[in-house]
Amino acid sequence: MTGTEQAFADEAALTVEALVRDVELAEPLPYLRSRDAEGRATRRAWLLIRLFTEPIGTVLVDLPPNGLKPADLAAAIDVAHRPRIRQRAAAAGVRLTEPLGVNGIVPRRAVPYLAQREAVLRDAPHIAVAVCTKDRPDGLRRLLDSLLASTYPDFRIVVVDNNGPDDDRAAAVVREAATRGDVTYVREPQPGASHARNRAMRETAGEIVACTDDDAVVDEFWLAEIARALFEHPEADIVTAPVVPAELVTEAQVWFEEFGGLSKGRGFTPDAFTPPFRQDPLYPCPGFGAGANMAIGGFNPALGPGTPAMGSEDTLAFTQVLRAGGTIVYHPGAIVRHYHRRDVAGLERQLVGYGTGLTAAYASLVRSEPSVLVELVRLVPTALRDLYSHDGVRAEGIGETFPRELLRANRRGMLRGPFAYAKGRRQSVNAAHYLARNDTPAKARAS
């Protein structure tokens, strides 16, 4: 461990930036202590507010030294989400006219949200879960544990390992998980997240496929809510959903959320992106979702983690679906929790990757459809204004402590994106030629 890494470890051992937890309004509100379960001091709490398991929104509250009393927590939640809470409560026969109480909202009749989920589960479609992994055996184990804890009745998991042939750590994790459920192991020798995801798509051809990553965990209702989204929107080509933080231990993780996180400020309001579009699918990219939480197939192998472009294979796929007249459904109930990078250097690399990947995706679009260039040129003034304005969409959620150098790093990435795409495309073609001349390792089932 380097000196910097040790410093972060020491700091994390003493304090956390924000406590992260769910608050269910159908239950008595908790007393929030100023220390987490491991005894670390914390000044704030990031709360996912739910009612009858349905996500309502989030609240970030300060924690006094003696903790936050349930009544004070109720007041903060009420200020942030009063209309939506009352709407959902009314559907369950509860009329809330006074400030939110602390004893829990008890339904007086069947809760529609729960009843609809139960109806979907009675005829639950089979779902294949695609998990791509590289160099994260502990994260993979944590994710598989969360998936296997699901009560969804009909699913299987396909783990695609993008490590080298001499690294069998992921295979060992899958072998153990396969003793508890239907978990299959596949090795993809060609590096890059897109190659791994496309391999997963080939392994699950003909199935409904839900994708997530090895640095995340899934909510217990994740698969059930994906099934609900597909039941409610049979026309959907893609289903996406929120990716919320699993922890906010360090300031870097908080800054990532301020930058938009992985949900890009989409929030918890259901939506469908379908023609005619309310905005241009090219820019500003709506919060369709992220690769850590989606049901989709087909990725550009010159984009994504593990390539010079570093990312945006999911953004490109989303944009291509929309431009082809397809439909993306955003369903807030299917929640995934993500472990953001804890250190500032890692966050900077990530934001460089986001910038690089975005313009690399545009380069890919122009290559396949040259007329897109005219549309992109028309959008440049708006994009530049948003990038450099203090009140633009990019700076909307950023706090005073957010390092401006991170914004500059993101913009530097944008400048190199087209060159990174060209390099990644050459590498992908060369690797494909090499693999065509050599035997590809066969699929192995962990047992």
Summary?
It is built from twelve helices and 14 strands.
Task: Explain what the structure shows.
The chain has 447 residues and is α/β, with parallel strands linked by helices. The protein folds into 2 domains: 98 residues, no CATH class; 319 residues, Spore Coat Polysaccharide Biosynthesis Protein SpsA, Chain A (Alpha-Beta Complex). It is built from 12 helices and 14 strands. It starts with a helix and ends in an 11-residue tail after the last helix. 43% of the residues are buried.
Strand-helix topology:
Layout: H1 3-14, E1 15-24, E2 41-51, E3 54-62, H2 70-91, H3 112-122, E4 127-133, H4 137-148, E5 155-161, H5 169-177, E6 183-187, H6 193-203, E7 208-213, E8 216-218, H7 222-232, E9 238-240, E10 243-245, H8 251-258, E11 271-273, E12 294-295, H9 313-323, E13 328-330, E14 336-338, H10 344-368, H11 372-388, H12 404-436
Parallel strand pairs: 1-2, 4-5, 4-7, 5-6, 9-13, 10-14
Antiparallel strand pairs: 2-3, 8-14, 9-12, 11-13
Name some characteristics of this structure.
41% helix; 4-stranded parallel beta sheet; disordered C terminus; alpha/beta; 447 residues; 17% strand; 2 domains; 4-stranded mixed beta sheet; Spore Coat Polysaccharide Biosynthesis Protein SpsA, Chain A; single chain; 14 strands; globular
